[in-house]
Amino acid sequence: MLDHLGFKVSDYPASKAFYLAALAPLGHGLVMEVTPEMTGTDSWHCGLGSNHKPAFWIGTADDAGQVTRSGLHIALVARSRAEVDAFHAAAIAAGARDNGAPGLRPIYHPNYYGAFVIDPNGHNLEAVCHFPE
Fold it and tell me: What is this structure's pTM?
């Protein structure tokens, strides 16, 4: 069900160092870092995990490009791009706010296809498919 989760931290460098140290004994390390240059915002994010799969994300606190209030990000596995599209449409119909229409997000990898909504509690909810069309 869960693909990855993410949340904001108040001190990104200190939190990154903490999680790198704390997760290393479990076999998890830095898989990727998303810089301000990559996003066009002032935010930094890093994904930790194993086997080239970032599953645990932290990021800097609010910036101009961040819509969520809570800072909680939950990504759900979708088995196809059509499921991502259907998730987005159903969530919007159920009262969510759009936070990123379905589409490719090659910043993560070439087949990353996701959609984002803000749920009624202010959480950033995503459906993601990692498979090619």
Answer: 0.76
